[in-house]
Amino acid sequence: MSGNAPSRSVSEKFKFMKALDGRTLLHALSFQAPKIRLLRSLLIEGSPAMQVLDFAVLPEPEYDLPIFCANFFTTASLSIVVLDLNPLHDVVIQKDYKDKYYRKLLPLGQKYVELLPWGDKLTSESLRFFSPIVIWTKFSTDHHKHQVLYSAFKDYFEAWLELLEQAIKENDESLIHQNREAQHKYLTWRAEKDPGHPLLKRLVGESLAREVVRQFLFEGVDSLGVKSFLDYFPEYRCDDGTINQKRSVIGKSYGVRPWNDNGEFIGNDPT
């Protein structure tokens, strides 16, 4: 990356945490750099049978760059993976945004479609935050697959860094506001509905897990905007005004990859 050296900034309480079981360790790192509002990584090392990596890079609001996202969960028998350049804006509705960032990356996505095939049914609520090149996969844990995954991680991160290098700072305040709100919406969804939350609660307790989620993993949810989860996602409002705790309330899911080779969304008839 060009520019000044990255600066390190993470609360002391999150740098190193020992789980309630006395064995599992959690290591957190975060950085800031030119064009990057937050780069953060959480590594969870349990028994040899369980490891987790939650890695993300979020741009400054002056850039409409995608959000780099890598979530890897591995046990002795199963690996669950999400790897993507999460779009900041809707790639189905805003074709210009999709073309700007993903048209040239479609061959990269196709490279891994067969090596790391679609994992399972995915809810439409989650899908709205994924791009046409998303890797969503599950596989029986083995060394070869992990090598493929590591290769995919490097390729995707290098692609994101190239986009970062080319990114031009936005000066239009209205567009900066749109970028900031889009990132806040993303963080608000993840802070409330991320599937890794139950694991964190089991490991460190509900109170500390909430702090890790809101002050570290999805830092910015309490500062980038003022809208609530229900402002963004009113379909989750219960009759008593609370948030529906279900992962999906729309009821649609996609059991096969809902994009074609040209990056066009073909999932209007979900299975």
Automatic annotation (TrEMBL):
<keyword id="KW-0560">Oxidoreductase</keyword>
<dbReference type="GO" id="GO:0009507">
    <property type="term" value="C:chloroplast"/>
</dbReference>
<dbReference type="GO" id="GO:0050619">
    <property type="term" value="F:phytochromobilin:ferredoxin oxidoreductase activity"/>
</dbReference>
<dbReference type="InterPro" id="IPR009249">
    <property type="entry name" value="Ferredoxin-dep_bilin_Rdtase"/>
</dbReference>
<protein>
    <recommendedName>
        <fullName>Phytochromobilin synthase</fullName>
    </recommendedName>
</protein>
<dbReference type="Pfam" id="PF05996">
    <property type="entry name" value="Fe_bilin_red"/>
</dbReference>
<dbReference type="GO" id="GO:0010024">
    <property type="term" value="P:phytochromobilin biosynthetic process"/>
</dbReference>
<comment type="similarity">
    <text>Belongs to the HY2 family.</text>
</comment>
<dbReference type="GO" id="GO:0050897">
    <property type="term" value="F:cobalt ion binding"/>
</dbReference>
<dbReference type="GO" id="GO:0010019">
    <property type="term" value="P:chloroplast-nucleus signaling pathway"/>
</dbReference>
